[in-house]
Design a protein that fits this description.
It is globular, with a radius of gyration of 32 Å. 58% of the residues lie in helices and 3% in strands. It is built from 36 helices and six strands. The N and C termini lie far apart (80 Å). The protein has 928 residues and is an all-alpha fold. Strand 5 (898-903) and strand 6 (907-912) form a beta hairpin.
Amino acid sequence: MAHGVASRVARGMAATPRTFVATILAVVVAIVAFGVAAMIPSLFAAFLAAVAVGVAPGFFWARLLVPTRDLYVRLAFSVALSFALVPAFAVFLAKVFGSGVTLPIAVAAPSLVFVAGLAASIAFGRAENEKDVPLSKVSAPLSGYALALFVPAVGMALLAFFGIVPAAPTLLPIAILIAFAAATHAVTPRREDDELPPSGEPRREVDETPPSGESRREVDETPPSGGAWREADGTSPSGQTISGEPPSDGSREDHGTPPRKTPTSGGPLSGEPRGKTGGSSLRGTSTSDEPSSGGAWRDDSGDGAPPRKRSWDAMRSPGFGIVRAMLFPVVFGFVLLRYYLGVALHDWPYLRGGDLYSHAVMTNRMMDEGEILPYLVYPPGFHTMTAILARITNLDPLELFPLLIPAVMALPALALYALATKLWGWPYGVAAAAMSGLALGSTYSYFDIAMYPNVAAAQFLLPMAVAALVFSYANPTPRSAVLVALLGASVVLFHPVGSLYTAALLGAAGIIFLPYLLLKAYRERPENGMKKEPRGFGNPLAEALRRVRGQFVGRKGAGKGESGNPPDARLPTPHSLESRRISGKFLRTAAALFGAFAMLGVLAVAYAWETYDLPGIVGGFVGGSQTGSGGYAVASAVGTQGWLPLEHFLDSITAPILWLGLLGAFLLLFTKNDGTPSLLSRHTLLLWAVILFVGSRTALSGFPVRFERDLGIPLALLAAFALGALVKSLVAFRAGGKTTLATAAVAVALVAVLFGAQIFQSFERATEAPADYLMTPEISEAGAWLRSHNEGGNIIVGPHQNQVASRAMLAMGDYSALQSFTPSRISYDRDLPPHGPEPMWDVLRAINYPTEERTARILDEYDVRYVVFYKRFDPGTSWGSTAPVEWWRNYEASPELYDTAFENEGVVIFEPREGVRAGFDPSEKNTF
């Protein structure tokens, strides 16, 4: 009885995964909250606002556009669609009303997106609620020879990781060994049943149909002699259940392919007599662990060996359902913990990173002006989202960032879960999330230096756009095209470098895949195939005649009509019907991709029109004149940054993801073709990785360092694919003998040690004080004074060699100009304001020569209200190793021209007297 009660409870728990997801999330929040007690009140308000703005608006859009039952995949698309639509609506409303992101706009934008999604979902219905079938087969277990080559490679990687041998000399040997291991795996003969269907799907006797449902022409349409057709759901064409086949009633996870015909005759597979046609139970078709009616066990291999436990048997158990419901939330909770630890221990109430203050300035500009120019040439997506949250929570951007930015850093893990789950199944999704969230170094480096929009665009929205593209390959519909267009264009709204990735990847996909699909559709047409289709195809009368005459097939004289004459030669053959269906599938896929890319292009141009001054760029190229702010920004970036040495990959990406990702790339390249959707998906992933790698090796990309960091995202995905192959090598039913099994165990153990050491190092780094911490109590106090005395105009801040000091004061004082830079930085001419170098040279002149008449004109022209200088830097900050130049001494020596408005141990602020700016008219608004 106790066992029955426990079983019912376990089944109930498995049937309601949301309850356990909520429980796990609550535990994770409690763990994190233990270290952030001071953050709790603001954190709770910010979390509710984030759900209302960044999750809920996209919920019904995800329901409308994404055909999935997986709760976490739908959550990922809900967040992505919220990011894509809410800032676009807010910017549109701000332009219409000629204002910044005010509180009414901040409330209206997410509300309109939510209501529009709800209305569209009601009007058009939810996306087809099909079962979540992985698109591709997972890799077969690695052969013994491949494992023998991989073990020394991962062994050298471990030695380099722990510093026992230098890292640089090991790069080439490790890469060569991994390449040879994958090539050896590809050419090693193996049984057909070595390559399991996705996610442990039970083997079928015929497994040649791609998961997307696209039939292959090689599959014979005639049942074997003495046999009968059965469908994949365990029924015969007449609806009779075939003995031993597990029911497809939702009691087990079905990762199989769509229904297809499979011969069920006995002998060749099980050594039993063939079953009789038409019976309610057919021998030789059982896939259960029970003996057949003939009294003999049946195994897939057909050699009479005792059967093994089926993978789907374990997946039917209540305990497995609980594990599946809890595993991803636990992994995601640890990812959140990784990013919140440093904030709780060191950063609060300010975050680390120099770009933090630039993002605060741009958020303030979106709140006040509704645009970022002329501060920087930058798309408004991320800063519009933060402006909405700041309005709703009534928090300053610098107060909001420590609360929500760590959660933004965890979004790449959510995106890779969605993408890997659709490709290979949910276990691969969990592995990809763990690798990107716990072992990848590049995302955390963006957190350290505060490059948040880059993470949102290149590491979250772009993977989600690729996931949408994968859904479109599997199910090419107008909805999938809209999904690709919305998510792909949203990258342009968030970051310029992410836009470059998107243009390169989707442009290459369109150039390569569209002609391929059209050619395949042309070749599959019956008139171009081996058999020419009868001319009567498509005629309704001929179609009706075909159905009538089909009733006589199978009678005495099969193949003839009642009169015994041959059937009408104008009727379509099964081959011609199948060919036309396949050709139509290729055409639908090509049409969906073309429509998606066309809509994406229109949206991208609309988003980039004003940000990058596209009319100015086009006019400049055509007329040979200035190309505007967008052209200036591009010209100042291309060729100005060199690439880093190859061994730097071990720092930016980390060793386990680099090497396992390389193995996954080669395995994916050599994977057996299992259908066009899978083929397109594999090459999309490989194109993604290749484009980022090439961009990281050339200065012509403009941002080789960012290309290198963002390469970690597709490599983490490929590493999950390779990890699956390694684990399968260890647990494969026929491991090839003790030697192969021992080699597989060593390989998995070494990989586990490498990943474990990297995750430990990641958390150790998270608990350390940040290396790029800039704030001090003195600077914070001065910033608060500036904000309280901000009555318009601009300020000048003494420059520092890291170019952050001026932006920190601008952010805290709610100013956006003037920025100050050192002479060498101005001459470098990269990532500078789009108004040209003249204002920055004017700032330097005013700082160096406070008593000159030219300085008085500069202060008047730019409406300068305060001049700010740093007196010293706190040793606990990244500035502590240097002392500021004492430009402020010249101002202090001129009390007749400048009053000391504020001073503490670290900062001094001067206010020009009225005589210095004699020509200034307070009634005139300065538009700089």
